[in-house]
Amino acid sequence: MIARPQIIDSRNPMFTGIIQAIGTLESLQPRGGDMRLRIAAGKLDMGDVALGDSIAVNGVCLTAVAIDRQHFAADVSNETLSLTSLGQLSAGSEVNLEKALTLQSRLGGHLVSGHVDGLGEVLKFYDDGRSVRFHIKAPDELARYIADKGSICVDGVSLTVNKVTGAVFELNIVPHTIEETIIKHYSTGTKVNLEVDVIARYLERLLLGERAAEAKSGSGITRSFLAENGFLKP
Q1: What is the DSSP string of the chain?
Q2: Tens of pLDDT along 113-132?
Q3: Architecture label for domain 21-99
Q4: Into which CATH architecture does domain 118-199 fall?
Q5: What is the pLDDT of residues 158-185, one digit of tens each?
């Protein structure tokens, strides 16, 4: 009997941002106000997947509610459909897939929670040597979490930010990543799921100190806050 890999925390699964397979959305079925997605898993090894396990679909953590050797199904709420790119998919759409991180996994990317922070938009892209350079516009409220040479998750793919200008960041995508993910299908105007580095969020709360208990949702570190607390030179 083969032992099933132990997931780090089945109640709060984590991912690495290293895509394991490209799947295909076979159907979207309305279920009492929500939607059930049935996905052909492609090259994803389903041998160790059990009911209730988490699989990231384009960077969105979903729970497998039905499985077989080549497919899985997951229920998606209307809120998730409206706040992520999953709501824009149709039958036949390809999706990035990654199973939840286990204690036996190699952390090849960075820690990813599968909780999308916002939708970005591809502004432009062009060849840069053998790679492709993408310019993506993030929501303004996420700009403070994106830094040069920092990590960001785009449709479930762990990537390094090459440059940031305001809320626009640049990515240099190598041929292998393009070929093995849905990035190959991006065009100008494509909406993408963004998850910022969790370390940036915790750092923001840490810097707030005692003010963290009073901070409203969506508020955080501002330039005036940094100046008041000695983080900016006069």
Answers
A1: -PPPPPBS-TTS--B-S---EEEEEEEEEEETTEEEEEEE-TT---TT--TT-EEEETTEEEEEEEE-SSEEEEEE-HHHHHHSGGGG--TT-EEEEEEPPBTT----S--B-S---EEEEEEEEEEETTEEEEEEEPPGGGGGG--TT-EEEETTEEEEEEEEETTEEEEEE-HHHHHHSGGGG--TT-EEEEEE-HHHHHHHHHHHGGGGGTPPTT----HHHHHHTT-S--
A2: 889 999 999 999 999 999 99
A3: Beta Barrel (2.40)
A4: Beta Barrel (2.40)
A5: 999 999 999 999 999 999 999 999 999 9
